[in-house]
Amino acid sequence: MQFKLSKITFLVIFFLNQTICQISFTQELSPLQSIPSLNLSQYLGTWYEIARFENTFQKDCDEATAVYSLNEDGKINVTNTCRQFKNGSLTQVTGVAKVEDPVSHSKLKVNFVPSWLRWTGIGNGDYWVIDIDQKYTYAVISEPKRKYLWILSRTPTMDPVVYQKILTFLGNQSFDTAKLIFARKNAIQKQDVK
To answer: Per CATH, which fold does 40-182 belong to?
Structure first.
């Protein structure tokens, strides 16, 4: 009986210790913030994906672009296109985005399910603009849980200095930038060596 009691005591202490260690080492992330103000008319148009976190809905996808246009009802049409790695064919999906934050316009809900099913709310995803430059030449998109991330540019390539600035910003926002994958060959412009 003495042995069983000691074994149980050991297990209780072990599990308590593990729980305490997990709690003390779990970093509490500060809530992700979207930008304070997004000019939707300036944001509309074509964006090229430079890098992203891998996700299931862009599996085997390269050279992705997103085209945003304003709908008559104030919602935003979204057309995403990418080239499939395996056979080079283009894949296109069309959805709609709706502004969720009427003050900043930088928090949207995007949905790519068939239009007849959208009223149910199935497929709604958060689309937050968390960084953008003053000239709207690049944008960084994510969502509150930091599971998804996209770096977009108005051109198919991005200056490495700008890309590094974005990586620094993302690191400060507790993103694991090592998980980023490039969405196109030569996405970052090569610097001329002198």
So the answer is: Lipocalin (2.40.128)
pLDDT single digits (tens) 94-127: 999 999 999 999 999 999 888 878 777 778 899 9
**Hey, is 25 helix, strand or coil?**
helix
Query: Of 34, 32, 56, 52, which is closest to residue 149 (Cα–Cα)?
Result: 52
In whole angstroms, give the CA distance from residue 61 to residue 80: 11
Q: What is the DSSP string of the chain?
A: -HHHHHHHHHHHHHHHHHHHHHHHH---PPPP---S---HHHH-EEEEEEEEE--GGGTTEEEEEEEEEE-TTS-EEEEEEEEETTT--EEEEEEEEEES-TTTS-EEEEE-S-GGGGGGTTT-EEEEEEEE-TTSSEEEEE-TTS--EEEEESSSSB-HHHHHHHHHHHHHTT--GGGEEESSTT-BPPPPP-
Asked whether 85 and 61 are in contact (CB, 8 A), the reply is yes
Query: Which position has the token pair 């992330």?
Result: 29
Of 53 and 4, more confident: 53
Q: Which residues of 127-143 are buried (b: 16+ CB within 10 A; e: fewer)?
A: bbbbbbeeeeebbbbbb
Domain map of the chain by residue range?
A: 40-182
